[in-house]
Each structure stands twice: as C-alpha cells, then as structure tokens.
Amino acid sequence: MHRSSHKLSCEELAYFIPLNVQLSPYSSRNIHKIGLLVSNLKLRRTCSSQNLFEPVNKELINSSQNLIEPVTEKLISSSQYLNHPSQKGSRQSSIYQKFAPAENYSFLQSSSLQHWFKNWQEQRKQKLTASTFSGAIGFWPRRRAQLWLEKLGAIEPFSGNLATCWSNIKEEEALERYKLITGNTVAFPEFQVYGKMNPEDSWLAASPDGLVDTCTYGLSPRGVLEIKCPFFGGDMSKAFPWKRIPLYCIPQAQGLMEIMDRDWMDFYVWTPKGSSLFRIYRDVEYWDALRLALSDFWWKHVQPAKEICSKYVITDPLRELKSLRPASRHELCGYIVYESKRIVDNSSLLMREINGRLITDSNE
Fold first, then answer.
1. Could you tell me the Gene Ontology terms of the biological process aspect for this record (predicted)?
2. Coil, strand, or helix at residue 199?
3. Torsion sign (Cα): 161, 30, 272, 280
4. 344: closest CA among 10, 40, 12?
C-alpha cells in the first residue's frame, strides 16, 4: 500500500477537536425544533465521536499523534446510560463515570426528533456499523473503550444528542435539495449486513442515506449517497457548507461503498445557508487496511469478551476483562489517518452554493 506523504493542514487537524453541547437547566412541555433550544446551550469540548458533525477552528497541531488526541478525558453522549446489571440500584463504579452521561434529556427520544426512515437501533447493537468505524480504530482514543463496552452491553449504545436530532429533522429537506440540484433518483435501502458471499463478515453492517443509480457518461451507475447536516454547536451564524470533507468521515464513506458494493459516493453537506456536494471514489487498498483494523477490534476484543460474559458473571469489564480491553488506537490508525487525507485530496468538490448562488474560487 502506498503511504501518502501529504501534510495535514490546520483546518483538517481542527476537524479532530469535537464539540459537544449541553443544556443549562431548562424545561419546556412542547419542543418541536432544536433551534428553540440554542439560546439555552452551554458548549463543552469532549471527545464523543457522535458530536463530530462539523469542523471547528483550533490552532495547528503538528503530528498524527496529536491529530487524534481528545481535548478532554470525558466521553459524553446525551442519552447513554450505564446499564450493567451489577450497577443497577447500587453505587456506580467510579471508573465507569467517564463513559456515562452527565445528564439525560428525555425529549431527545421524542418520535419527532428521530430519523424519518432509519429505525434500526436493535439491529445495530450486534454489528459494527460504518458510522462507528472511525471510533473503532482509534480516531478518538477513548471512544474505542466506550464502543467496546457498548458491544458488551455494559453501557447503553449512543442513541442521539442535539446534533443528531438536528440532522434527523433536516435530512429530508437536504435530500430534496440534493435531488433538485442533481436530478438524481434516490432509493432507500434496508439495513445492510456485509458478507452475503462470506458469512464470516456478517459482523459488519451499514445504513446508507440512499442509493443513486444514474447514467452519466464516464461514471459507473452504482453510487451511494451520504448526507450531512452540520449542527455548528447550534450557532447557525456559522452554518456555511463545508469546503472540504473532514478526515474522520472517510472510514464511514469507504465502509458504506464496500458494504453496499458501490463504486462512488455523493457526499452532500446541507446547511440553512447553502450546501456543497463532493464525489468520493471507492478505494480497495484503503478498505483492506481499514478492514484489518476493524477485524482486530471485533475478533480480538469484542467477541472474546462477549464469550466470557456469556459464561460468567462479569460485574466490572474494565477490571475483570482488562486483558481484552482495546488499546486507545489500533496500530494502523496513523496510516489510515494519512490515507484518509489522500482520499480527501483526491475527492472532487462538484458544487458549493450559498443562498442559492454558486460559489467559485473567484467569487468567494
């Protein structure tokens, strides 16, 4: 495999500094839009992978090690509960506190804030899905241990926060804009499990936003659609469409193309002020390295620990299964980060619009 020698820009490095939002004390009986809550938010930095919906500005960090360091040591997911049987009705082990939420907001589970057609939470629990690939290999070091605990059933899997709810309620609008711009017809597939030809790979799965079959000259008709609706920490004054794909999106993108057996992806970013459309192509060498790292996480850490849990009463996986707890990063993580940079460099920005006006280098 060819190792990219490209340097990482300040903007790309900043993509790895996540933003999490928490509510200040606030109550409301009838919340319909996340926008109503924005003025009541407190912003806090964290390394939760589900909060990485947009780049943020930070000073330059000069190495791949620093690139994927978290900003704090807490992992906060707004609806994740510690759910190990030994913890119910008793004191929670202090070591789990860094994986448990500071607060829970029940309104996030409202049906009006859920995805309009993806209702696959139960199916996702027993699989490693494309949206978790970056975390599983160590783009955010503490996310690996959190994901491991989720797959063991020691803590509840991530089920949503303000950023994901914003994406859920805006994605249908974004889809209509994408279809208007491209003229493409989009099909909506079911939850897809990998490994139809090889059942040993059935632990991998994906839930794409859409499939695109188009007859464009020089382009394979088999494409997949990924839609992003960045939350920008609730500050819509900063809601401008991305100029570049964040590196952490590439494992998910390549995973979707492989699992769905598609040759290219339309990566569409929607904001209230405009949108941008990127084209990414399937990369077999990248997937080979990514699959190896994912396979190690699943077969060396998740499955052996699950087998022990099925035979014995395990009350503290972090202590009792310490030998099976994954390291903060897979040994291939640095390589995959740099190869993600190569793929981003080779992607195409097909279109960027702000307030209905096409933006080019000359008029930006």
1. DNA repair
2. helix
3. positive
4. 12
Question: Spelled out in words, what is the top-level CATH class assigned to the domain 10-358?
Answer: alpha beta
Q: Give the H/E segment covering residue 279.
A: strand 274-281
- Contacts (Cβ under 8 Å, ≥6 apart) of 72: 44, 45, 46, 47
Is 34 in a helix, a strand, or coil?
helix
Answer whether 331's CB lies under 8 Å from 300's CB. Answer: no
Average pLDDT by stretches of 10, the chain with 364 residues = 48 40 33 39 36 37 40 34 42 53 50 51 86 96 94 85 86 95 92 82 93 77 94 90 97 97 96 97 98 98 97 94 97 98 97 92 63
Tell me 362's DSSP state.
T
User: pTM above the 0.85 mark?
Assistant: no
Beta strand 264-271 pairing with 274-281 = antiparallel
* 59: its two tokens: 């000073």
Measured CA to CA in angstroms, residue 294 lies from 68, 144, 166, 185 at distances of 17, 11, 29, 32
Tell me the DSSP string of 283-338: -HHHHHHHHHHHHHHIIIIIHHHHHHHHHS--S-HHHHTGGGSPPSS-TTHHHHHH
- The encoded tokens of residue 302 equal 């998740």
